[in-house]
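Posting for a labmate who doesn't have an account.
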Amino acid sequence: MVAGLYIVIARGNLIKKLVGLSIFQTSVYLLYIAPGKLIGGTAPIIADGFRLYTNPLPHVLILTAIVVGVATLALGLAIAVRIREAYGSIEEDEILAADRDSGGGA
């Protein structure tokens, strides 16, 4: 988790930031799913002889989060391509310098 966060904060390359965000999201998925598994638990299918069932809700929520994460990553990559077309670079410092030189920005 910390590696992904470090990449997002420390790197200036937009693609590397997106990769770091993906690593961070994956580690959050694992952190959330790991406690959801019970030792000795079985899938929540009602059958004779099973008394301890694993809660399926964390898995369903993470499945939804994975879909949202993939869509977010795809959108981020599409925006990075447009930024590359507009500024000629995907480095944060070069984009900010080009934006300041053109008179745009805050």
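Reply:
Got it, the structure tokens are right above this. The chain has one domain: 2-101.
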